[in-house]
Q: What sequence folds into this?
């Protein structure tokens, strides 16, 4: 999935409005139920599909070394402007293959995949999970938040069963740490979120 593929459809054109929406809630509000799974600083953190950098910047301010991958150039531009005071390393890379990240050979103690997974179709998700797992250090944690509900006009999203995500993670050598869910922070009708945590033993 690159900037020109259907997975990021609609994001470039709506980047200005999305920047306001994404930054209207805090890192703590978004990840509150998962914060006990975050490693202590300093840790090596990767934010896949980092959007406008809200989470990446918050983690950098906490003392982590943060790499943020975002395939939409317009969102990256907002991120670098909004969070210019943070030492986040930005990269234009994308699921399912993550070629740039995998070529680096780095491993991360924490990987976030927030509001991204539902943009991949079933075949792409099956390809993506081993690539994400490859980037996770032994003892590291993968945290995923997956949207469910009506698809906004002009976007590409799929319903993703939790059981499928768990099965893909386990097949990639990961173990379940957390399964939960929560309503939408923006109050959108019919929208809810799955929250899943995994570790590499």
A:
């Amino acid at each position: 999935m690159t900037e020109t593929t259907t997975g990021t459809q609609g994001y470039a054109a709506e980047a200005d409005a999305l920047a306001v929406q994404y930054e209207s809630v805090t890192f703590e509000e978004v990840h509150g139920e998962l914060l006990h799974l975050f490693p202590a600083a300093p840790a090596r953190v990767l934010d896949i599909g980092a959007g406008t950098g809200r989470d990446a910047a918050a983690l950098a301010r906490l003392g982590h070394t943060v790499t943020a991958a975002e395939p939409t150039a317009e969102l990256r531009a907002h991120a670098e402007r909004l969070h210019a005071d943070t030492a986040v390393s930005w990269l234009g890379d994308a699921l399912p293959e993550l070629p740039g990240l995998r070529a680096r050979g780095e491993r991360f103690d924490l990987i976030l995949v927030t509001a991204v997974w539902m943009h991949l179709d079933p075949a792409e998700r099956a390809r993506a999970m081993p690539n994400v797992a490859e980037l996770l250090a032994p003892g590291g944690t993968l945290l995923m938040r997956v949207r469910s509900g009506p698809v906004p006009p002009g976007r590409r999203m799929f319903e993703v069963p939790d059981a499928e995500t768990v099965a893909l993670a386990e097949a990639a050598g990961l173990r379940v740490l957390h399964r939960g869910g929560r309503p939408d922070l923006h109050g959108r009708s019919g929208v809810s979120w799955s929250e899943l945590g995994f570790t590499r033993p």
